[in-house]
Structures are given as C-alpha cells and as structure tokens.
Amino acid sequence: MATKSLYGVAAGGGACGGRQPKSSNVPDPLSPPLAHPLHALPAMDGPRERLGRLGACALADVELLAVLLGTGRRGEDVASLAANILRRTGGFWALSRLSSTELMQIAGVGPAKAARIAAAFEAGTRALAPPELAAPLTSSELVFERYGKAMMGSPIERFLVVSVDAKNRPRIEREIARGGRTSCQVDPAEVFRVLVSDSASGAIFLHNHPSGDPDPSAQDLALTERLVAAGALLEIRILDHIIVGSGRYTSLRDAGVWPTTSAKSNTSVALGR
Q1: Where does the pLDDT of residue 262 fall: very low under 50, low under 70, confident under 90, or very high at 90 and above?
Q2: Which SS3 state, helix, strand or coil, does residue 55 take?
Q3: Average pLDDT over residues 239-247
Q4: Which CATH architecture fits 140-272?
Q5: What is the structure's pLDDT at 20?
Q6: CA 64, CA 269: separation in Å to the nearest integer?
Q7: What is the pLDDT of residues 35-81, one digit of tens each?
Q8: Which of 81, 65, 77 is nearest to 18 (CA)?
Q9: 140 phi and psi, to 5 degrees?
Q10: pLDDT the model gives residue 269
Q11: Stretch (H or E) spanning 197
Q12: CA quadruple 109, 114, 116, 117: dihedral positive or negative?
C-alpha cells in the first residue's frame, strides 16, 4: 500500500493591397466588384504572407486587422476595410472595448468577423494575465488524487508524465503511450523529449494496471531504472513512479524499490505483468 512521502524540491527556487490593374476579365467598372478575399492580395504584399515571413510584430495595425477580417466587402477590399474600421473607431484601443453586437454595427463587419475580432482581443487580454500557480505535489497521495484516479477505469495500460518546476508545481501532464490490457511500450526518448521541450525541472510518472493490482512488475522496475538514469544525465529530477490499480496505488519511492544504480536509457521498455 502507498504511504505519504515528501518529495524533494530543487535548490533555489500601412494598408496593403488595393485595386488591381484592369484586365480583359475585369467586370464593367460600373458594376460593384465582389468582396476581395485576403488571399487575392499580391503574395509579396499581403499581410498574411508578411506575417508568415516576418512575424506578427512586423505588421502595422491595419495589416493585423486585415488578417483577422479575412475578406473585404462589395466595393471595398480587405485592406481598405481594415483601414476604415480603425479610422472610424479610433484604433485598436477603442475597437477592443466594443462588444460583438457593437462590432456588427460597423459597415462590413458581420457576425463571423465580429466574433474573430472579439476573440482575438480577449485572447490577448488573457495572455497578459500571469498563470495560476498550482499547489506543489508534495506526496504520492496528492499525485494519485490529482492524476491517478482518472486512470483507474481505463481498460488499457496508459503511461502519463507530469512535469514540475523547481518547487514541484505541476506544469503539464501528457500521455506518452498506451497499450493493451497487459502491456504498454514506453520509449524513454519520447518521455524526455516532452520534458526537455517543457524545460521541466522534474517529473512524476504514472501508469495503470487494468488488472487492478498495482504491484510493480519486473518490467515496471526496469523502465523506472532507465528513466531515473536518463533524468540524472539531463539533470531532470525524477520524483516518483506511481502504479495505479483498482482503488489503490503503489508509489515505487514509498515502497522502497527506488533505483539506486544507473542503467542504459536508450531502449524502449514494455510495461506489463
């Protein structure tokens, strides 16, 4: 059975586009032209192409809004529409304070365009807010409550990685592998690709036994040994490996079977019983 354990914490703690030259296939100028889609703008001048080439920061306000609008309207291309919207509203600061209903009162802005503009401003606002810091994972019991219970009803084996920061606060959780009822192939290289890309300070591993018995198998111990060895090389702390059964779990660290020797970490291991 599992018991509580306190995990160690790391030390320290301009408008673009426009009307194109007349050609033989241009309709009568007295007839109102169709709305110009953004992709109809010249490839080298289009704001979407400039964004892809130079990044969003290189775009002027009118270009950013043109990307969000996507198309213009009859008699007005997308770049002109974007410029007119910014001029009439007073710029992004004022535009961001309009509701979707108010946005739709602007000529050329329908429900879809209004929704995209409103969503973009809201996303920007949320991006400026600092992320909520989750409570540190201080024990195997807490890890089981937060992540393990959701694995109990799975009819197949699943291997989960939880990355943590230097204070053991969870950053991401990612399912690395899933298998059958009795085994699951886990590649340590994939495990640490996720952890390195997340700049993790540490990690906790969980996998379930569909049989309901959380006792570790020889394969479980061999995989843990390889993961701990790889973590030591990459300076990523491996805090625990928890096996989830039916209503209970086993923490390899709590159970006293935590690896103390190095092992090769470049081969995949099949978890199983």
Answers
A1: low
A2: coil
A3: 95
A4: 3-Layer(aba) Sandwich (3.40)
A5: 43
A6: 49
A7: 555 554 444 578 899 999 999 999 999 999 999 999 999 999 999 99
A8: 77
A9: -65, -35
A10: 47
A11: helix 188-197
A12: positive
Q: Two tokens at 47?
A: 């704001």
Nearest to 12 by CA among 201, 225, 159, 186: 201
Tell me which H or E stretch contains 116. helix 111-128
Task: For domain 38-128, say whether CATH 1.20.1260.10 is its number.
Answer: no
The rounded percent of the chain whose pLDDT value lies above 90 is: 65
Give the C-alpha distances (Å, rounded to integers) separating 83 from 61, 72, 163. Answer: 9, 11, 45
DSSP 84-109: HHHHHHTSHHHHTT--HHHHTTSTT-
Beta bridge partners of 170: 164
pTM over 0.70: no
Q: In whole angstroms, what is the distance from residue 46 CA to residue 17 CA? A: 6
Residue 250 is which amino acid?
Answer: T
Q: Which two tokens stand for residue 55?
A: 């990044």
Q: Where are the domains of the chain?
A: 38-128, 140-272
Beta bridge partners of 208: 244
Closest CA to 155 of 113, 209, 201: 209
